[in-house]
Q: What sequence folds into this?
């Protein structure tokens, strides 16, 4: 007999599939932003697509060019890029997007 909780759980996003290293890096970047600007500040100030896309691309480029960690925060550049993309997704969900 299958536990009905398992069947329901299988229908939901399998968050445990996200690699822990990715979660830790994104959390590090979001923690850095929290110290600077406050928690989830984008939900009240709005999300400028150009700001977050630009920042994500700068972090990806820095990583691609051989720099692993952001000089100012000590957080992995890919964590910063992930945080930028997460904020863009969150902004879409909460309808706080700007061009």
A:
């Amino acid at each position: 007999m299958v536990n009905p909780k398992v069947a329901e759980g299988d229908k939901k996003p399998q968050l445990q599939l996200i690699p822990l290293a990715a979660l830790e890096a994104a959390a590090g970047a979001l923690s850095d932003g929290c110290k600077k600007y406050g928690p989830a500040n984008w939900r009240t100030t709005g999300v400028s697509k150009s700001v977050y896309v630009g920042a994500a691309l700068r972090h990806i480029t820095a990583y691609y060019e051989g720099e692993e960690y952001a000089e100012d925060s000590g957080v992995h550049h890919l964590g910063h890029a992930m945080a930028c993309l997460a904020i863009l997704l969150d902004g879409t969900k909460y309808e706080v997007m700007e061009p």
Notes: DSSP finds five helices and two strands in the chain.
